[in-house]
Amino acid sequence: MPPENDVEVAVIGGGVVGCAVTLALARIGVAVALLEAEAELALGASGTNSGILHTGFDSIPGELETELILASGRQRDAMLDALAIPVLRCGALMRPFDDSQRDAAAAVAAVARRNGVSVVERDDGTVEIPGEAITDPVAYTLALAVEAERQGAELRTRFRVDSIEADGSGLRVGAASGVTVRCSLAINCAGLEADSIARFGGDASFSIYPRKGEFLVFDRPSGAPLDQILMPFHTKRTRGVLVFPTIDGKIVAGPTAVDLDDKHDWSVRASAREEIIGKAAVLYPPLEGAEPVFAYAGLRPAGRGVNYLIGIAPTCPRLVHAAAIRSTGLSASLGIAEHVMEFVSSLGVALGPEAPLKGGPVRRSDRPWWRRTAEYRASVAA
Fold first, then answer.
1. In terms of C-beta density within 10 A (0-12 exposed, 13-18 middle, 19 or more buried), how is residue 280 classed?
2. How far apart are the first and last CA of the chain?
3. Is residue 339 within 8 Å of 323, Cβ to Cβ?
4. Which residues, including other chains, have CB under 8 Å from residue 230's CB and lie 6 or more apart?
5. In which domain, by residue range, is 70 found?
6. Is 117 inside any structural domain?
7. Is 146 inside any structural domain?
8. Which of 146, 201, 217, 291 lies 20 to 30 angstroms, CA to CA, from 79?
9. pLDDT (tens digit, 9 = 90+) per residue, 288-301?
10. How does pLDDT run across 93-102, given as a tens digit for each residue?
């Protein structure tokens, strides 16, 4: 008989959304276990993005994604301070280069005002967004996880879910290793594999595909400081190539946006350098001809025809999805967790008063966050 571990809620997926949900549950007294397939947390999209904490200034008003980014923003400063998460409060600039972009700049400012986000419109049409910030996304995710442990959560890595079965009034969540967790309900925060987890619960209503975003990392050019995020005017499909400083003193340019079928292709294409540097140098001319010191790719969990799928699985009433969180999971994670609690409550889990954050020693990775996943994937492949 395989060992069993009874909890009220099992959270599947140890990225930033899963860690935020786990912390939210632990703070209100719910017995919760976080189940992560890999050997460490934040080895997927949560550790391979830009690290930008967006304000929601340019998000479509009224959409769930926008509302949850804004909700997250209302909680974020308190979380950053209490957990000593590194943050660079640098702001961002969107600078128009022609008349059509001046019109786009005015439209961006109008959207920001509708979303209640402060922006500054300069005489030359540039839009400044003072609230945009940079963090170390791995440190952010790990800080949420460590605080969840302080609040009583259990974190389990190398738990690759391969079955979800009804068990009386709850569920049995099984791992490939043979271990089973029995829970009242499960929350699917599995990122790229969220559709696979859904299918274990009999739900084939959505699918996830990877949208690859490649980034180049540079040393700071001598005599050319960069103290703000530089943003282009984005399209309906992508935010485009950005240039931004990092917590550890580098400059990063990217991402690309390449739709794939292979959820395991973390490689950086040979053509990515040319695609990125040409666009990045328009925003930040010192990158023209610069040599990157590293390159990494992230796979964003995009939903086919769906974005921010959060709710109860139609085929499994004890399974809650937080899926298709394509590119703003870091920025919206706290708001997503708050929203998920509504479904947890509706399924009969008793929610106690929220405990204060405890804080404490910060968990740090032993290598820069922008190297971590790429090096881990390379070691696994070897």
1. buried
2. 34
3. no
4. 92, 93, 95, 242, 243, 244, 283, 284
5. 4-88+134-208+304-381
6. no
7. yes
8. 217
9. 999 999 999 999 99
10. 999 998 889 9
